[in-house]
Specification:
alpha/beta, 2-enoyl-CoA Hydratase, Chain A, domain 1, 2 domains, six-stranded mixed β-sheet, 9 strands, about 50% helix
Length: about 260
């Protein structure tokens, strides 16, 4: 079977490289399965500090593969459920990955590719990247990726692009909060990625994992009185943890903290 992705590790950061160049990295069931297996590898490595998703070519991801879509048209509803659930599993595994995640995007960012961007914690795009959710023009909707896109862009803005299926620019994606930084060219993505890795490396591994989970749990949470004890318990636990103790001690001693690995 042709290799469609590569998983490489540089220092403590994994790179998941989409490498189906002849199809503009369009998904099929085999590529999805390989990506899930790669995320399992990252999740199991306690020395990992982060994951970067990028393309080996000019285009990030063109969405669903045409041949895969043709096969799905011949499936029963149950078979389609199982097939769609695999894609849903990929998105959730990426969204819930313990370490920080970054997507580096250029060219076409369509359908499921846009879903990958929405599932990562940070995203950097080239100024000429083009985004699109074209599913309604195929008689479908972006159901599996929709919750993550609405979370990343805001409900009403995402709804507009889901209903119109209009393409939108990297500048619009930046204004919407789908991407966090714009660079001029694909050559600039590498240096922007290095800056992101440096920033992540400066943080404590367990604190980063807790911060990520905290952000997920606090999103749209009802601001009731219970928030007092929930937030106090969170910071109290970290203050008394080995990482919290090391961070405070290093700050007072004016030195770089020794974080070690996640446990």
């Amino acid at each position: 079977m042709t290799q469609t992705i590569r998983l490489e590790k540089e220092s403590a950061f994994y790179h998941l490289i989409l490498d189906r160049q002849d199809k503009r990295n369009a998904f099929d069931e085999h590529m999805i399965a390989h990506m899930i297996a790669s995320l399992d590898t990252v999740r199991a490595d306690k020395s990992a500090r982060g994951l970067i998703i990028r393309s080996s070519s000019a285009h990030f991801c063109a969405g669903g593969d045409i041949a895969w879509m043709q096969r799905s048209a011949q499936m029963s509803e149950r078979e389609n459920f199982d097939d769609a659930r695999q894609l849903a599993q990929l998105m959730y595994q990426l969204f819930s990955l313990e370490v920080p995640t970054l997507s580096l995007v250029s060219g076409a960012v369509f359908g499921g590719g846009l879903g990958l961007v929405a599932c990562t914690d940070s995203a950097i795009a080239t100024e000429d990247a083009i985004f699109c959710l074209s599913e309604v023009r195929l008689g479908l909707i972006p159901a599996v990726i929709g919750p993550y896109i609405m979370r990343a862009m805001g409900h009403r803005r995402a709804q507009h692009f889901i209903l119109t299926a209009n393409r939108f620019s990297a500048q619009v994606a930046y204004q919407a909060g789908l991407v966090h930084e714009l660079v001029q060219s694909t050559d600039d993505l590498s240096s922007a990625s290095d800056d992101w890795c440096e920033a992540i490396n400066s943080g404590a591994p367990i604190a980063l994992a807790v911060a990520k989970q905290f952000c997920h749990e606090m999103h749209d949470r009802d601001m009731s009185e219970s928030i007092i004890d929930i937030t106090a318990a969170c910071i109290a636990s970290l203050r008394s943890s080995p990482e919290g103790q090391e961070g405070t001690k290093a700050f007072l001693e004016k030195r770089t903290p020794d974080w070690g690995h996640r446990e």
